[in-house]
Specification:
By secondary structure, this protein is mainly alpha-helical. The chain has one domain. The chain is about 70% helix and about 5% strand. The protein has a two-stranded antiparallel ribbon. Helix 4 runs antiparallel to helix 5. The protein starts with a strand and ends in a 10-residue tail after the last helix. About 5% of the residues have low confidence.
């Protein structure tokens, strides 16, 4: 009987994290670009949600670091290279840590999605057709995610490091958003 356990869902977890980062970046950028025109009560609600998002992103960063530590002990076929069809083999103790860590990550992704949807729920009276003004950061996140998912020569450790970097960039956007929402807009009138 083998002392190792397969962890075949690793690639799907990486894709889910990447997709959540795209969603959080887009939503954060949208709210960021329109925060000055938000009514005060909407700003307060958006700020509260954005704080929660930023906190969950920091927890996600920490959990990905744990995940990365678990992967260091993994037996990786194909010379440790990452691909969407890679199989990863872990010792029983590492698999237990992996199982716990992936559960925490999935819970955080659920919380991030829920918070992003709450922010998007503010959208009907905030967004206009030009709402996507913070395009530069979002395009950078999209490009980074594409690189992570298409990189054929990257090791799993490198993929997780790049993913951590993406989470960090999205976290900075949300920190900036919460700062911006905290400030009073220069000229603002409540809608009638």
């Amino acid at each position: 009987m083998s002392s190792e356990t397969k962890a075949d869902d690793l690639a799907s977890l990486i894709v889910a994290i990447a997709a959540a980062m795209l969603n959080a970046a887009k939503t954060g950028a949208d709210i960021h670009s329109k925060s000055a025109s938000m009514p005060k009560h909407t700003r307060g609600r958006a700020q509260s949600i954005a704080y929660g998002l930023a906190d969950d992103l920091r927890r996600l960063e920490a959990e990905i670091a744990v995940f990365q530590d678990v992967i260091v002990s993994a037996q990786l076929p194909e010379g440790g290279r990452f691909s969407l069809d890679s199989r990863t083999f872990l010792t029983k103790p590492a698999f237990e840590r992996y199982k716990h860590s992936s559960g925490v990550i999935l819970d955080l992704l659920h919380r991030l999605q829920k918070a992003a949807l709450q922010l998007e729920g503010i959208a009907p009276h905030v967004y206009g057709p030009d709402a996507f003004q913070a395009q530069g950061l979002v395009e950078a996140v999209i490009a980074d995610v594409r690189r992570v998912l298409r990189e054929e020569d990257a090791t799993l450790g490198e993929v997780l490091s790049r993913l951590l970097s993406i989470v960090g960039e999205v976290s900075k956007l949300l920190d900036s958003l919460t700062d911006q929402l905290r400030e009073e807009p220069q000229s603002h009138t409540e809608p009638s």
